[in-house]
Amino acid sequence: MKKDQTQKLVYMALYVVLYIVLKWVGNLIPFLQMPNGGSIELELIAVFIASYHLGWQRGAGVALLSWLMTWILGFPMWIYYPMQTVLDYVGPLVACGLASLLWPFKNTGKAGAVAMGILLAAGAFFGIVNSYGRIMPAFIAGGVLAIGTFIFVYWYLSEKKRFGIVIAMFLKYFLQVLSGVYYWMPEGEYPGSPASWAFSLSYNLWYNLVTLIACIFVVPVLIERLKKASVKFVA
Fold first, then answer.
1. How many angstroms separate the CA atoms of 165 and 98, rounded?
2. Residue range 4-30, pLDDT digits in tens
3. Using an 8 Å Cβ cutoff, are 51 and 9 in contact?
4. Which among 116, 127, 124 has a CA at the least distance from the CA of 153?
5. How confident is the model at residue 201 (pLDDT cuts 50, 70, 90)?
6. Nearest 5 degrees, angle CA 10-CA 15-CA 20?
7. How far apart are CA 96 and CA 168, in angstroms?
8. Alpha-carbon torsion (216, 222, 223, 225), positive or negative
9. Residue 232: Cβ-neighbour burial (10 angstroms; 0-12, 13-18, 19+)
10. How many CA atoms lie within 13 A of 184 on its CB side?
11. DSSP states of 178-204
């Protein structure tokens, strides 16, 4: 038992190191960075794998330790208020560490996959329309995104993929949108204004979406490879 606990602590340390290395590499690539904070976060791959490998409790622990270490090491962060720090950094990372807990669709049938696909597709459509206003390009973009979302969700659930990654990224996006609405408003706007919501929804969407796409394809592949190498996964 003691040996098993020690082994898990070693794995946690390795995932934290992997997170730091991936974040450092990502910071060296300019096109991964957003102009006013936020980035395409390849380092989340380490957190997601930790969650499925070691369980959601240790996954959340890896997430917290990863943020703490990057803060101590002086990685660029926009930190001004305690709640803003939670919404921008700590909360989103912990949400990703909980991915193995956020997987309630293991036995979803085709009907459930269709229903979930329709729900998320509708959210994608109205999110785009409300972000950019009721103009024809927004309706077209929203329609394309909605169709793509439905096809993806239906396939992902039907194939019994690790949907907890999607839910965790949605929670991450939601928390960062709240931070944008109440702490990073457009100039001349007040916290919670419609313009603040529109700006935050659109600004935080794209880098989170690209991060999600990268993680949902890379993480399951790496997990399967690790399992073939006789690494035991909790979830």
1. 9
2. 788 889 999 999 999 999 999 888 776
3. no
4. 116
5. confident
6. 125
7. 5
8. positive
9. exposed
10. 25
11. HHHHHHSPPTT--TT-HHHHHHHHHHH
